[in-house]
Amino acid sequence: MPKVQVVNMQGSPVGELELNEYVFGIEPNTHVLHSAVVAQLASQRRGTSSTLLRGEVRGGGRKPWRQKGTGRARAGSIRSPLFRGGAVLFGPKPRDYGYSLPKKVRRLALRSALSSMVNEQKLIVLEDLSLTEAKTREVVKVLKALNANRKTMIVTDELNDTVERSARNIEGVKTTPVEGMNVYDLLYHDVIVMTKAAVAKTEEVLA
Asked: What is the mean pLDDT of residues 159-182?
């Protein structure tokens, strides 16, 4: 079973934690990781691109020239896709690009991402993250003690309003409860700081 060091808010080791191998110790499935990231990015697309069809373009009600005798191809409207300023053929229309993956695939992707973090030693387990008040400098102090100066994601066992408000102004730092974890964020951030309670809840949800 994989093991990680547990540290306190001052960055000092306070013990060791044995992780669930099924959640944190599997061989990362790169294909499933890719599928999960693509699905998440697709669901974030706004899908507002729109072009005008032939019936939606303004003007073009009069036949531009007579049907026969001109030597030119017959035309019924200058708003045909053949003309400049006319309609767009097979152009985009507002649509929802999102789609969902099977539940087993989503869970495998999360386990693969977490295992990848452990393999690359990007996971820091914090004994506890308790702040008396919402102060940005308190979170900055904790991250500095943990040597987490890069893109960092803080994962708590449940929504912690004090931690969220304290960290939201720090560039490159994101906070989320266990339920809000997703593959894209796990792979995007350089360091994942999880509380001991968050690790236990993650194992409970994904095991």
From this structure: 92
